[in-house]
Amino acid sequence: MQGLTYRGPSWVRVEEHPEPRIEHPNDAIVRVARAAICGSDLHLYHGLVPDLRVGTIFGHEIAGVVEQVGPTVRHLVPGDRVVVPFNIACGTCFFCERERTSVCDNTNALSNLCAGIFGYSHTTGGYQGGQAELVRVPLADVGPMKIPDDLSYEDVLFLSDIIPTGYQAAEMGDIGPEDTVAVFGCGPVGLLAQRSAWILGARRVIAIDCVGYRLDFARTYSHAETVDFTAVPDVVTHLREMTDGRGPDVCIDAVGCGASGSKFHTVAGRKLLLEAGAPTALNWAIQSVRRGGRVSIIGVYGPPWNLVDMGSAMNKGLTMKTGQCDVKRYLPHLLGHIRAGRIDPHPLITHRVPLGDAPEMYRLFANREDGIIKAVLVPEGAR
Amino acid sequence: MKTPRKRGTMKARETEPGSALPADAPPATQPARPAPPPSAPPYWGADLRPDERPGVPRETAPHPLPGAHWREPPFQPTENAVLQPAERDRLTPVYSTALPPRGLSGIVRRAAHLIPDHRVSHWLLLLVADRIDVLQSLRPARKSA
Question: Which residues of A touch B73 (CB under 8 A)?
Fold first, then answer.
């Protein structure tokens, strides 16, 4: 089978791989119908995540049809259409029992950081990803959600990651009706965090980025006020001026370790790897939020460290929440928002291409070219 | 679309000072819903109440997730040697067998996994192993599609 394969930093290609097989009695093999490229896949693409082995198939946003199930699988049968949460969870460990599936204790044999994740390096378990024709889905009775008959793959594909992730980003901000919310990043997760901030009842939503077409998109898709941080002398001062000198009540970092905006962090973190990527957006969030405010960190950072302005965070008395998304707990609720039209995934899909064109999509995505917001890959033979 | 969810019980035991009622008992009259701001889209405030948000509280009272029909998942048969963190005494019930360590990069990876992952040296060795892996894979080993 074919799969989008890592060869080295900024170098991926589609290669032949052996087909996955049932390795655990509760495995399923899913034939991928749609797979999306996530902004966090770019951290892999740039070689920023440790223990990323040549030959890794990327892809953790997956929807498809069950082709084969292991002997103990009770809730899926071949032919079921499913959307697959990006984190692999057992459902009964200390963390899963508290609905914290993102930190499941039983699915990542290779590190103590988080649960297993599809196609996201051996730091998250080394599972092959779904930007391929077939994917092995462990513990299939817990993770995948059957797709209702009246919904298409593309209606629900983003429930695998970016819709719940964007929603959790806003939810971690404890947003109330008096709150001004600033979201750093207008990638897909940032856009969905902005939209979710309105759903949670924000008074104002401000989107910050440096890519013109993304800021344009945020104004229409997310109804956000926008700030191009390259067009203002100092983005932190600018945000304070927009908010009566105090700063936003809630700041959301939806960028992570691939941030631009600081020459120092770009060189130290992204070029020399002296820190785990560039924490520029996180520092701006800490510095611009009002004293006593809340900072939500959903942008992805890898181990072991970053130069983060903890002195400001501590002295300003901030509340900070962070974490990978616990996708499973959000699925029924957010499916309701999709059905009601409050979250519309379709405008985000700017590129829909065969799997063979995936390397070009990575190049476009990394360089912010051709107006790309979200690329969806369609493996050969998928309907 | 909300499924019944088991919630924490801590809040239910808290009471207002001088009151016999639980603190989270519904008030006699619901507070007025605030008006949406002028710039808000039509879907504003659909999840205004924190107790209706699916991730609140962030950690629920313990309960097995739907679909899990085990106390602990059965263990995957051990077919290949898989590295594991230095501080773990056993493999997890499920794991990936894809891309086992190989060559010089594999030696460095094995050395890294002897060091707990809260140590910087663990991660630095893995980054070194990753770059060696790229170099040793420059000889084309797979057929490009």
Answer: 24, 26, 90, 92, 106, 139
